[in-house]
Task: inverse folding
């Protein structure tokens, strides 16, 4: 499809989103083409939201086909009550940055412990009898200390950087793992997020695939402390535990009717 046609259709999408109002169903994936935040919300087995439900990530879709992800969060859903999207983003940004410096301090402490252990080992080895063996052992210890100091310096000089936006892609599929909802449509959303490596201050680009389907909050908004949310359930995560249900949610007005999946989106845009 020609570029101008795609642009025209995207314009229609924007008009449709504005015209439908926040009291109507949110059309997906059309809504990902608007400036909006979405969140990963863990709510256990309950079919209603709770102030203590955990928000583990906040995603800012910029309306231009990109998403900015703040992952590794530990926010209470109740902390977002009464806040607008800009304020929620600010909370996510602050905690994402705090996580960077917390990780930095933890690595520093871990490396300091390892360095101290090697120093003590060096003192102990220096009192051993065979001079040749002592020299060889001390040389190996010195090499380990040098390597750890380089790691320590890399951690010490690391500076926080804001995450970078990633292009988003969408597709539709069927899921058949749930025998009670066999062959129901699911929306598949793919993008990259940036996560800190466990043993360094390096950010890794991690590919994310979200398999989203209708769940508890697709039809009706859940309320927590005066704020309302709708979303799709996420399925198929390897780290899922029994009873750990979580939804991909967005803030809405009280009268919101939920979410509607429109699976001819790609065909309309010629993607």
Result:
């Amino acid at each position: 499809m020609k570029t101008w046609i795609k642009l025209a259709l995207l314009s229609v999408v924007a008009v449709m989103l504005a015209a439908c109002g926040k009291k109507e169903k949110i059309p997906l994936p059309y809504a990902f083409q608007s400036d909006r935040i979405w969140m990963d919300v863990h709510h256990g087995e309950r079919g209603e939201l709770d102030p203590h439900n955990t928000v583990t990530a906040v995603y800012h879709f910029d309306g231009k086909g990109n998403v900015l992800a703040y992952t590794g969060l530990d926010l209470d859903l109740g902390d977002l009550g009464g806040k607008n999207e800009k304020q929620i983003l600010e909370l996510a940004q602050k905690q994402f940055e705090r996580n960077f410096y917390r990780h930095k301090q933890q690595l520093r402490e871990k490396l300091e412990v390892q360095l101290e252990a090697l120093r003590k080992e060096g003192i102990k080895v220096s009192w051993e009898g065979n001079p040749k063996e002592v020299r060889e052992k001390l040389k190996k210890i010195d090499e380990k200390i040098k390597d750890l100091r380089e790691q320590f310096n890399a951690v010490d000089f690391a500076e926080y950087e804001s995450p970078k936006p990633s292009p988003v892609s969408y597709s539709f599929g069927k899921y058949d793992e749930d025998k009670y909802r066999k062959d129901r449509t699911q929306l598949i959303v793919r993008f990259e997020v940036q996560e800190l490596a466990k043993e360094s201050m390096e950010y890794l680009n991690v590919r994310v695939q979200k398999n989203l389907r209708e769940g508890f909050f697709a039809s009706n908004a859940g309320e927590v402390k005066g704020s309302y949310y709708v979303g799709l359930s996420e399925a198929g995560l390897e780290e899922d535990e029994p009873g750990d249900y979580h939804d991909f949610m967005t803030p809405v007005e009280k009268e919101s009717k939920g979410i509607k999946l429109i699976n001819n989106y790609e065909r309309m845009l010629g993607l």
Remarks:
- The longest strand covers residues 184-196.
- Confidence is low (pLDDT under 50) at residues 1-10, 12-21, 265-271.
- Residues 66 and 166 are 5 Å apart (CA to CA).
- Helices lie at 3-20, 85-126, 131-156, 265-269.
